[in-house]
Amino acid sequence: MTQMPSLSSFHPTFTFAPKGVPRFRKTFFSLASMLNPTEPTCENAPQIQQNYPTPLSPPLPAISKDIELTRAMSASSKSSLYKLSRSDVLYEDEWFVAVNKPQGVYCESVLASVPCFLAGDSAESKSGRLSEGTKLNLLELHLANRLDRDTSGVMVITKSHKVASKLVKAFTDHKVSKTYIALCIGPAPKWKRITIISGHGRSKFGAWRVYAASDVGRVLPGGSVVRDMVTSFEVLSVNGEGSFKEPSELQEHEENNIVVEKKAVLDADAKKNEILVRAFPRSGRTHQIRLHCQYLGISIRGDVKYEGVYEWNGKRYDGHELHAESLSFDHPVTGCPVMVQAPLPLWGTEALQSSSK
């Protein structure tokens, strides 16, 4: 044990002013040096480096910043003019309404347009606004699920707080089955069905990235944690060759599993094809399908954030081509099974047509 030196061993020294007045010369010593004179100070101590997980997908391409800004401005303008019509409604009862959200419209704008639709023309004033009494009866509308700005498809809006809490919990507990349709560009897959298992996360102020499956649970810069991300895919067509079939749950024996542990090895010179896939997200992570398509080397057309082509066959795309095709769940009030399905968008129908061009 290091013996602590006594305070009496530290003697202040004197200096004398010209007229002989004694003054103390300032002598400083730290408590840390008294306790252990050989211990290095905090300033000189080596810094401990935090061992953070390394993302396995690339950062956002530089081109995406300007393109995304332009798209956001266009969507703001389009959203301000959006009005829900009867043709957009896929399902409705006294507890919730399911609608087919168009591409390039914000979820909040769809929600804002629901009151006038539910109230009907009789409740609208000449200015197109609801009367105060009607508004009070519609204050409990909630978004049960959200879609990205450029993702089209099924969106559910509940009509009461109680139903909202039940349905949101069903989404959180993964008791809602979801299917998506995506048009991708890349090498023709060697698989018909596949399941990809990885980590998902982002550093503070960073983009969402794919991480190794073994990194799940590890802390990222900023304090967030890598979470699990699982998506199953099936190929519907390649260059128009194939056929559409109704969504059904994939069986485990039909799938090949890819457990992500390292960066994908992709052939940059491989022939690019138009690939229509159906995705079954098993977890509900942000940009999940877009990230997994990127990792598989078949980024979604128009998805500039995740290396999707901005221009293809002489055409420029104003958004990514991802469509929320269906939702299946138990009714939050009656308990009966409900399946809501949105029709294919135009780009999906065109992709299924035989390509002789």
Automatic annotation (TrEMBL):
Family annotation (InterPro entries): PsdUridine_synth_cat_dom_sf, PsdUridine_synth_RluA-like_CS, PsdUridine_synth_RsuA/RluA, RluA_PseudoU_synthase
Annotated ranges, domain Pseudouridine synthase RsuA/RluA-like: 96-294
Database matches in CDD domains: PseudoU_synth_RluA_like
Pfam family, one: PseudoU_synth_2
Catalysed reactions listed for this entry: a uridine in RNA = a pseudouridine in RNA
Endpoints of the signal sequence: none
UniProt superkingdom: Eukaryota
One BP annotation, GO: enzyme-directed rRNA pseudouridine synthesis
A Gene Ontology molecular function term of the record: pseudouridine synthase activity
PANTHER family membership: MITOCHONDRIAL RNA PSEUDOURIDINE SYNTHASE, RNA PSEUDOURIDINE SYNTHASE 1
Protein name stated in the entry: Pseudouridine synthase RsuA/RluA-like domain-containing protein
Species of the source: Citrus clementina
